[in-house]
Amino acid sequence: MVTGASAGFGLALARELASRGWRLILDARRPGPLKAAAEQTGAVAVAGDITDPRHRDALHTVVRGLGELDLLVNNASYLGPSPQPPLADYPLSELARVYETDVFAPLALVQLLLPLLAEHAAVVTISSDAAVEPYPGWGGYGSAKAALDQLSSVLGAEHPNLSVYAFDPGDMRTAMHQRAFPGQDISDRPDPASVVPALLRLLEQRPPSGRYRGSDLSSGDVGS
Q1: Lateral strand order in the sheet of 163-168
Q2: CATH superfamily of 8-218
Q3: pLDDT at position 224
Q4: Which of 34, 78, 96, 160 has the most CB atoms less than 10 A away?
Q5: pTM of the entire structure?
């Protein structure tokens, strides 16, 4: 299962997994783009908001109908306001939405799907360098990703039979990244498809659970 799979890194990952014969369940908020992604990949598409418990229940029902889940990729996320405000001016209602999408929803989905995860399944949460670097204006999104990193670390410690990874893909040329830099040209950032091999290398090599950077995996250094 890949959440947030109608565009960007989620779509690029889904395409590559499909090309390797994976049977996929894809989630995204927008039905139109998600339907197109499903047609490209032969996936089961379940449109909805990952913060909605009813939508998560629908995903659970689909997984239960298909059998065990070997891979869960929590990719769906919410950036917050654009342009990114400093913490002194950050609207708390927006911060709550960031945490609801980027922290609480992934954990809720993991809680729901844990009984359906296959032995030695992998759980991947998509992180960000903003989780570990104090970039001005990134306090909302960055702190949410830092919280998600810690949840992933604890989940890995609590479930040693699973491979639980926080994967930092680095900057990418995506619509969300563009919203973080309104009015700026981000065409120099890597295409999401160019980052997918790093995550696949992580899944193939299965190092210990932990946080891994795409740039390290691309260079062949599987280190946390």
Answers
A1: 69-74, 117-126, 163-168, 210-213
A2: NAD(P)-binding Rossmann-like Domain (3.40.50.720)
A3: 43
A4: 34
A5: 0.93
